[in-house]
Request: fold
Amino acid sequence: MSILEWTDLDRKAVDVVRALAMDAVEKAGSGHPGTAMSLAPAAYLLFQRTMRHDPSDPNWVGRDRFVLSCGHSSLTLYIQLYLSGYGLTLEDIERLRQWDSLTPGHPEHGHTAGVETTTGPLGQGIGNAVGMAMAARRERGLFDPDAAPGTSPFDHQIWCFASEGDLEEGISHEVSAIAGTQKLGNLAVVFDSNHISIEGDTQIALNEDIVARYEAYGWHTQVVDWTRTGDYVEDVQALHDALEAARAETDRPSFIRLRTIIGWPAPNKQNTESVHGAKLGADEVAATKRIMGMDPGKSFDVPAEVLEHARKVAERGKADHAEWEKSFADWRAANAERAALFDRMARRELPQGWAEALPSFEAGTSVATRAASGQVLNALAPVLPELWGGSADLAGSNNTTMKGEPSFIPEEYQTHEFPGHRYGRTLHFGIREHGMGSILNGIALHGGTRPYGGTFLVFSDYMRPAVRLAALMKLPVTYVWTHDSIGLGEDGPTHQPVEHLWALRAIPGLDVVRPADANETAAAWKTVLEHTDRPAALALTRQNVPVYPGTDAEGVAKGGYVISEASTSQPQVILIGTGSEVEIAVDAQKLLEEQGFPTRVVSMPCVEWFQGQDSAYRQSVLPPAVKARVAVEAGIALGWREFVGEHGEVVSLEHFGASAPYKTLYEQFGLTAERVAAAAKASLAKLGHDKGETTGN
Reply:
């Protein structure tokens, strides 16, 4: 291993990092100083010596990525961004956790330059890092598959810092197992093993051999123990050697257990839970600064020579960047077609005429929307190479496998059913929905590819934390959630989503799309792919539904439209349906029209898209003067009250389902055309429009 040049200025800079962490939390009155203090040498080493990055261009394609999975220790990242020259100032460090600052309590992607992902919910960052590593390999396969290892401009490393809390969360198992199976040699995780969490010594809840666990996953493992001599010695050379060995290991992901003492070198609070998530207090801060040879009377003190020394990393970064640009230019010159694809994907632009590949379905036929979605993916495969994804072991049910496309898998793990290779396209997450969600986020964060992942809608519950973060980060991730209602039938209430649609619609920034038929499904995919600033969920049927003559792709893109107009120009009642319940609404329309009630049917596949339209359009679909309304959906009523108003009715399902054929369930639970028609008449009666008939007396 190379001998690390580690000068007195480097050691002084590390102590400045510790002091800034203490000062920032002290001033904010809250925060997590302890880990930022003990990880100071590791973070400084990574940013100053190990990681390939250019602070003057945080979005440089050829950069290594750094993920701080233990996002509560945000200062670990912020201080390195400041010292390296990413644009954060000392004032930004002073404004930790304050309104409108660039240093919020947890790192936020898109808010602060140099922050690769939003972290804080523990374990998510490891999943993001796994996704980034997978995306890097997929992109290399798209753009430069034949280059020798380490010679492509698309070769780079994903670095991740993780804590005990990250590894206690179950998601860490899911994503780490996938990383081992995928043999992601471009991924390295440094595990900060400090044995302290909020409740103190972690042995109260954590006692497994974590290194052995990662060996069992198939990772390359190393241990760097700064307590091994009985004294605490921050052996930076040993950590440097381990990081370089991790970079050299290209056939397996790497795991480094770094034994630290949290809060080092605070004399009274080191190695305690009190230094984990609270300020140290003025006396302890002063005592710690004295130990480090610093003036206890100064706060946020960064000597000019320290900052000048640390900022030299920007010069090295620019040099690395310039060298990379030469290899990138050579690649572009030799790969004009691939370079054009790279440029288009980098801009997240869709190719000219791509939508012409979308299938259309004949009115009067009957197709499950999950099957229609599968046909859409098959049709788009040749024209959108950036689109890739798979399922949490439900490919045959979710229809997420593009026909003829190889699986993304090391060759030795391909199967007869799913042949593939390292640069393949079809993802296999196994039964790991939560891990799938965080990996999809990492893929989207990494670059221009567009990932999708499938499971049953009811199991979106397992994915929800990752879905929420996708919405928070405005990532273009697509969820293919099938078996969207009691319409899945015999599997029963454990698998039948009831509360899920509105629970998901409650997530700000998530588009929940429940298409009524096959053509709406194709239009939904088109609209989703045209959006690059938000995640979307497709809720798709298991059962066949009719293909309607009135489907309108533009109406789908607007979230709601008139799919079947009333017999007169002035409807007396409006029926609103989504998904498979549009069929019930259309059948109820016939009953009401026969009874002399002009009835309009509105298909509302996406509440979020509809709410995004201007008032004039919304009123054209739902005229304020027509107050007799019914919404019908095989789930809880909740948000439909907004659309039907005080005189309207909702035909819904306010309880769990049951195990039976789906038609029986719809009939027994009153999700029928007759009940919708009766609800419409009840709404009319509230308004005095249902006068009844003379009895002849």
Observations:
- Residues 693-697 have pLDDT under 50 and may be disordered.
- The CA atoms of residues 8 and 175 lie 39 Å apart.
- The radius of gyration is 29 Å.
- The longest strand covers residues 187-193.
